[in-house]
Fold this sequence. Notes:
The protein is mostly helical. Helix content is 71%, strand content 0%.
Amino acid sequence: MTSSLVFGTTGFLMAAYAVIANDSAQTLGTFISSNKESAWWKKWLVMSTILVATLTYAWLAGDVAHGRLNSIPLPETFHWYHTLAPLLLLMLTRFGIPVSTTILTLSVFSSKFVLQKILLKSAVGYGLAAVIAYCLWFLITKFLNEASEVPKSHEKGWRAAQWLATGFLWHQWLAHDIANVAVYLPRGTGLDTEMFVGFLILLVAGLARLFYTHGGKIQEIVQSKSGTAYVRSATIVDFVYALILLYFKQYNDIPMSTTWVFVGLLCGRELAIYRKFNKDKQLTEVFPMLAADFLKMSLGLALSIVLVFIVANI
Length: 314
Protein backbone atom coordinates (compact mmCIF):
# COMPACT_ATOMS: atom_id res chain seq x y z
CA MET A 1 0.00 0.00 0.00
CA THR A 2 1.50 3.33 -1.09
CA SER A 3 1.74 6.37 1.16
CA SER A 4 -0.53 8.26 -1.27
CA LEU A 5 -3.27 5.65 -0.81
CA VAL A 6 -2.87 5.74 2.97
CA PHE A 7 -3.10 9.54 3.14
CA GLY A 8 -5.99 9.67 0.66
CA THR A 9 -8.00 6.98 2.44
CA THR A 10 -7.35 8.47 5.89
CA GLY A 11 -8.34 11.94 4.71
CA PHE A 12 -11.48 10.60 3.05
CA LEU A 13 -12.65 8.71 6.15
CA MET A 14 -12.04 11.63 8.48
CA ALA A 15 -13.66 14.10 6.07
CA ALA A 16 -16.76 11.91 5.73
CA TYR A 17 -17.18 11.72 9.50
CA ALA A 18 -16.47 15.43 10.06
CA VAL A 19 -18.87 16.60 7.33
CA ILE A 20 -21.73 14.53 8.78
CA ALA A 21 -20.95 15.47 12.40
CA ASN A 22 -20.35 19.19 11.77
CA ASP A 23 -21.99 20.60 8.62
CA SER A 24 -24.94 18.23 8.32
CA ALA A 25 -25.71 18.66 12.02
CA GLN A 26 -26.21 22.36 11.31
CA THR A 27 -28.45 21.63 8.34
CA LEU A 28 -30.58 19.10 10.22
CA GLY A 29 -30.32 20.85 13.59
CA THR A 30 -33.69 22.60 13.64
CA PHE A 31 -35.35 19.41 12.39
CA ILE A 32 -33.79 17.41 15.24
CA SER A 33 -34.69 20.06 17.85
CA SER A 34 -38.35 20.26 16.86
CA ASN A 35 -38.93 16.50 16.39
CA LYS A 36 -37.70 15.07 19.65
CA GLU A 37 -40.86 12.99 20.01
CA SER A 38 -40.16 11.11 16.76
CA ALA A 39 -38.00 7.99 16.91
CA TRP A 40 -34.46 8.68 15.74
CA TRP A 41 -34.54 5.82 13.23
CA LYS A 42 -37.59 7.25 11.45
CA LYS A 43 -35.80 10.57 10.88
CA TRP A 44 -32.65 8.70 9.85
CA LEU A 45 -34.56 6.51 7.39
CA VAL A 46 -36.17 9.48 5.61
CA MET A 47 -32.99 11.56 5.38
CA SER A 48 -30.92 8.54 4.35
CA THR A 49 -33.37 7.84 1.53
CA ILE A 50 -32.98 11.42 0.29
CA LEU A 51 -29.20 11.15 0.58
CA VAL A 52 -29.03 7.92 -1.42
CA ALA A 53 -31.44 9.22 -4.07
CA THR A 54 -29.63 12.57 -4.45
CA LEU A 55 -26.14 11.09 -4.71
CA THR A 56 -27.18 8.17 -6.91
CA TYR A 57 -28.85 10.51 -9.39
CA ALA A 58 -25.74 12.70 -9.48
CA TRP A 59 -23.44 9.68 -9.86
CA LEU A 60 -25.49 8.27 -12.73
CA ALA A 61 -25.38 11.73 -14.34
CA GLY A 62 -21.59 11.57 -14.19
CA ASP A 63 -20.66 13.77 -11.22
CA VAL A 64 -21.47 12.89 -7.63
CA ALA A 65 -20.21 16.34 -6.53
CA HIS A 66 -22.82 18.19 -8.63
CA GLY A 67 -20.13 20.16 -10.46
CA ARG A 68 -18.68 21.72 -7.30
CA LEU A 69 -15.23 20.26 -8.07
CA ASN A 70 -14.99 21.37 -11.71
CA SER A 71 -12.26 23.85 -10.79
CA ILE A 72 -10.51 21.54 -8.30
CA PRO A 73 -8.73 18.60 -9.99
CA LEU A 74 -7.86 15.37 -8.18
CA PRO A 75 -4.21 15.45 -6.99
CA GLU A 76 -1.87 13.00 -8.70
CA THR A 77 -0.54 12.08 -5.25
CA PHE A 78 -2.00 12.53 -1.77
CA HIS A 79 0.35 13.89 0.88
CA TRP A 80 0.27 14.12 4.66
CA TYR A 81 -1.10 17.65 4.56
CA HIS A 82 -4.26 16.40 2.82
CA THR A 83 -5.20 14.78 6.15
CA LEU A 84 -4.65 17.94 8.22
CA ALA A 85 -7.97 19.63 7.40
CA PRO A 86 -10.25 16.69 8.28
CA LEU A 87 -8.16 16.03 11.40
CA LEU A 88 -8.69 19.61 12.54
CA LEU A 89 -12.39 19.28 11.73
CA LEU A 90 -12.66 16.22 13.96
CA MET A 91 -11.04 18.09 16.83
CA LEU A 92 -13.22 21.19 16.39
CA THR A 93 -16.38 19.09 16.08
CA ARG A 94 -15.49 17.40 19.35
CA PHE A 95 -15.72 20.81 21.04
CA GLY A 96 -18.90 21.83 19.20
CA ILE A 97 -17.31 24.54 17.04
CA PRO A 98 -19.26 25.04 13.75
CA VAL A 99 -16.47 25.79 11.28
CA SER A 100 -16.74 25.69 7.50
CA THR A 101 -15.79 22.25 6.23
CA THR A 102 -15.77 23.62 2.68
CA ILE A 103 -13.17 26.33 3.28
CA LEU A 104 -11.06 24.21 5.60
CA THR A 105 -11.06 21.01 3.53
CA LEU A 106 -10.86 22.44 0.01
CA SER A 107 -8.17 24.99 0.90
CA VAL A 108 -5.38 22.40 0.53
CA PHE A 109 -6.75 21.21 -2.84
CA SER A 110 -7.46 24.60 -4.42
CA SER A 111 -5.28 27.16 -6.14
CA LYS A 112 -5.12 30.58 -4.47
CA PHE A 113 -7.33 31.96 -7.23
CA VAL A 114 -10.06 29.35 -6.66
CA LEU A 115 -9.80 29.73 -2.88
CA GLN A 116 -10.36 33.47 -3.25
CA LYS A 117 -13.52 32.75 -5.24
CA ILE A 118 -14.71 30.31 -2.55
CA LEU A 119 -14.14 32.90 0.18
CA LEU A 120 -15.85 35.67 -1.78
CA LYS A 121 -18.91 33.54 -2.55
CA SER A 122 -19.11 32.43 1.09
CA ALA A 123 -18.85 36.00 2.38
CA VAL A 124 -21.60 37.11 -0.02
CA GLY A 125 -23.69 34.14 1.16
CA TYR A 126 -23.27 35.18 4.80
CA GLY A 127 -24.23 38.78 4.13
CA LEU A 128 -27.16 37.94 1.86
CA ALA A 129 -28.54 35.36 4.29
CA ALA A 130 -28.29 37.82 7.20
CA VAL A 131 -30.06 40.61 5.31
CA ILE A 132 -32.80 38.33 3.95
CA ALA A 133 -33.38 36.80 7.39
CA TYR A 134 -33.52 40.16 9.15
CA CYS A 135 -36.00 41.62 6.65
CA LEU A 136 -38.14 38.48 6.52
CA TRP A 137 -38.39 37.96 10.28
CA PHE A 138 -38.91 41.68 10.82
CA LEU A 139 -42.11 41.21 8.79
CA ILE A 140 -42.99 37.82 10.29
CA THR A 141 -42.78 39.11 13.87
CA LYS A 142 -45.33 41.82 13.06
CA PHE A 143 -47.95 39.14 12.47
CA LEU A 144 -46.71 36.10 14.34
CA ASN A 145 -44.91 35.10 17.51
CA GLU A 146 -43.22 31.86 16.50
CA ALA A 147 -42.93 30.83 20.13
CA SER A 148 -46.71 30.85 20.54
CA GLU A 149 -48.39 27.47 20.56
CA VAL A 150 -49.53 26.14 17.20
CA PRO A 151 -53.29 25.44 17.22
CA LYS A 152 -54.04 21.73 17.43
CA SER A 153 -55.93 21.89 14.14
CA HIS A 154 -52.80 23.22 12.38
CA GLU A 155 -50.18 21.08 14.12
CA LYS A 156 -50.26 18.16 11.67
CA GLY A 157 -50.02 20.52 8.72
CA TRP A 158 -46.96 22.29 10.13
CA ARG A 159 -45.37 18.95 11.00
CA ALA A 160 -45.80 17.69 7.44
CA ALA A 161 -44.54 21.00 6.07
CA GLN A 162 -41.43 20.76 8.21
CA TRP A 163 -40.53 17.27 6.98
CA LEU A 164 -40.94 18.51 3.39
CA ALA A 165 -38.91 21.68 4.03
CA THR A 166 -36.14 19.72 5.71
CA GLY A 167 -36.05 17.19 2.89
CA PHE A 168 -35.76 20.03 0.38
CA LEU A 169 -32.98 21.63 2.45
CA TRP A 170 -31.13 18.33 2.86
CA HIS A 171 -31.18 17.80 -0.91
CA GLN A 172 -29.79 21.30 -1.54
CA TRP A 173 -27.14 20.95 1.14
CA LEU A 174 -25.92 17.67 -0.33
CA ALA A 175 -25.50 19.32 -3.73
CA HIS A 176 -23.12 21.82 -2.12
CA ASP A 177 -21.23 20.05 0.65
CA ILE A 178 -20.80 16.49 -0.54
CA ALA A 179 -17.88 17.92 -2.55
CA ASN A 180 -15.97 18.22 0.74
CA VAL A 181 -15.80 14.42 0.90
CA ALA A 182 -15.83 13.65 -2.83
CA VAL A 183 -12.69 15.77 -3.25
CA TYR A 184 -10.76 12.65 -2.16
CA LEU A 185 -12.45 10.45 -4.77
CA PRO A 186 -11.95 9.99 -8.54
CA ARG A 187 -13.83 12.57 -10.58
CA GLY A 188 -16.78 11.85 -12.89
CA THR A 189 -17.00 8.35 -14.33
CA GLY A 190 -13.77 7.38 -12.57
CA LEU A 191 -15.82 6.65 -9.45
CA ASP A 192 -16.71 2.97 -9.94
CA THR A 193 -19.72 1.13 -8.52
CA GLU A 194 -17.91 -0.56 -5.62
CA MET A 195 -16.35 2.70 -4.44
CA PHE A 196 -19.64 4.58 -4.77
CA VAL A 197 -21.59 1.98 -2.79
CA GLY A 198 -18.95 2.06 -0.05
CA PHE A 199 -19.22 5.85 -0.06
CA LEU A 200 -22.99 5.65 0.47
CA ILE A 201 -22.72 3.07 3.25
CA LEU A 202 -20.23 5.24 5.13
CA LEU A 203 -22.43 8.34 4.90
CA VAL A 204 -25.62 6.50 5.85
CA ALA A 205 -23.87 5.00 8.88
CA GLY A 206 -22.60 8.43 9.93
CA LEU A 207 -26.09 9.82 9.57
CA ALA A 208 -27.44 7.09 11.84
CA ARG A 209 -25.00 8.12 14.54
CA LEU A 210 -25.96 11.78 14.12
CA PHE A 211 -29.65 11.09 14.71
CA TYR A 212 -28.96 8.58 17.48
CA THR A 213 -26.97 11.23 19.40
CA HIS A 214 -29.61 13.91 18.64
CA GLY A 215 -27.18 16.14 16.72
CA GLY A 216 -24.13 15.88 18.95
CA LYS A 217 -22.16 18.90 20.19
CA ILE A 218 -22.96 21.12 17.18
CA GLN A 219 -26.64 20.97 18.14
CA GLU A 220 -25.94 23.38 20.99
CA ILE A 221 -25.55 26.35 18.62
CA VAL A 222 -29.00 25.65 17.12
CA GLN A 223 -30.68 25.22 20.50
CA SER A 224 -29.27 28.55 21.72
CA LYS A 225 -31.37 30.47 19.15
CA SER A 226 -34.90 31.70 19.75
CA GLY A 227 -37.69 29.24 19.00
CA THR A 228 -35.69 26.68 17.00
CA ALA A 229 -37.32 23.88 19.00
CA TYR A 230 -40.77 24.89 17.68
CA VAL A 231 -42.02 23.14 14.56
CA ARG A 232 -43.28 26.34 12.95
CA SER A 233 -39.98 28.17 13.45
CA ALA A 234 -37.94 25.21 12.27
CA THR A 235 -40.06 24.90 9.11
CA ILE A 236 -39.59 28.54 8.14
CA VAL A 237 -35.85 28.49 8.89
CA ASP A 238 -35.27 25.33 6.85
CA PHE A 239 -37.27 26.54 3.86
CA VAL A 240 -35.54 29.94 3.71
CA TYR A 241 -32.12 28.28 4.13
CA ALA A 242 -32.90 25.84 1.30
CA LEU A 243 -33.99 28.63 -1.08
CA ILE A 244 -30.77 30.56 -0.45
CA LEU A 245 -28.68 27.44 -1.15
CA LEU A 246 -30.69 26.78 -4.31
CA TYR A 247 -29.94 30.30 -5.54
CA PHE A 248 -26.19 29.91 -5.02
CA LYS A 249 -26.24 26.43 -6.55
CA GLN A 250 -27.66 27.89 -9.76
CA TYR A 251 -25.41 30.97 -9.64
CA ASN A 252 -22.16 29.14 -10.46
CA ASP A 253 -20.29 25.89 -9.70
CA ILE A 254 -17.74 27.40 -7.30
CA PRO A 255 -18.01 25.70 -3.87
CA MET A 256 -19.12 27.83 -0.93
CA SER A 257 -19.45 27.55 2.82
CA THR A 258 -22.98 26.56 3.77
CA THR A 259 -21.92 27.12 7.38
CA TRP A 260 -21.44 30.82 6.67
CA VAL A 261 -24.90 30.96 5.09
CA PHE A 262 -26.41 29.17 8.08
CA VAL A 263 -24.73 31.42 10.66
CA GLY A 264 -25.71 34.53 8.67
CA LEU A 265 -29.32 33.34 8.51
CA LEU A 266 -29.51 32.72 12.26
CA CYS A 267 -27.78 36.05 12.95
CA GLY A 268 -30.26 38.12 10.91
CA ARG A 269 -33.22 36.19 12.31
CA GLU A 270 -32.05 36.58 15.92
CA LEU A 271 -31.56 40.34 15.54
CA ALA A 272 -35.05 40.78 14.07
CA ILE A 273 -36.73 38.71 16.79
CA TYR A 274 -34.78 40.40 19.56
CA ARG A 275 -35.65 43.86 18.27
CA LYS A 276 -39.36 42.99 18.18
CA PHE A 277 -39.81 41.23 21.52
CA ASN A 278 -37.14 42.95 23.64
CA LYS A 279 -37.70 46.63 22.89
CA ASP A 280 -36.98 47.57 26.50
CA LYS A 281 -33.51 46.01 26.36
CA GLN A 282 -30.31 47.04 24.60
CA LEU A 283 -29.28 45.23 21.43
CA THR A 284 -25.85 44.81 23.00
CA GLU A 285 -27.33 42.03 25.13
CA VAL A 286 -27.70 39.74 22.11
CA PHE A 287 -24.41 40.66 20.46
CA PRO A 288 -22.16 38.41 22.63
CA MET A 289 -23.95 35.28 21.39
CA LEU A 290 -23.85 36.41 17.75
CA ALA A 291 -20.22 37.51 18.07
CA ALA A 292 -19.30 34.12 19.52
CA ASP A 293 -20.87 32.37 16.51
CA PHE A 294 -18.96 34.66 14.14
CA LEU A 295 -15.66 34.09 15.94
CA LYS A 296 -16.13 30.32 15.80
CA MET A 297 -16.80 30.60 12.08
CA SER A 298 -13.74 32.82 11.63
CA LEU A 299 -11.60 30.21 13.35
CA GLY A 300 -12.10 27.90 10.38
CA LEU A 301 -11.04 30.69 8.03
CA ALA A 302 -7.88 31.35 10.04
CA LEU A 303 -6.97 27.67 10.07
CA SER A 304 -7.56 27.48 6.31
CA ILE A 305 -5.15 30.35 5.73
CA VAL A 306 -2.55 28.62 7.89
CA LEU A 307 -2.97 25.38 5.92
CA VAL A 308 -2.59 27.19 2.60
CA PHE A 309 0.58 28.85 3.91
CA ILE A 310 1.96 25.47 5.03
CA VAL A 311 1.24 23.80 1.69
CA ALA A 312 2.65 26.75 -0.30
CA ASN A 313 5.94 26.55 1.58
CA ILE A 314 6.49 22.79 1.34
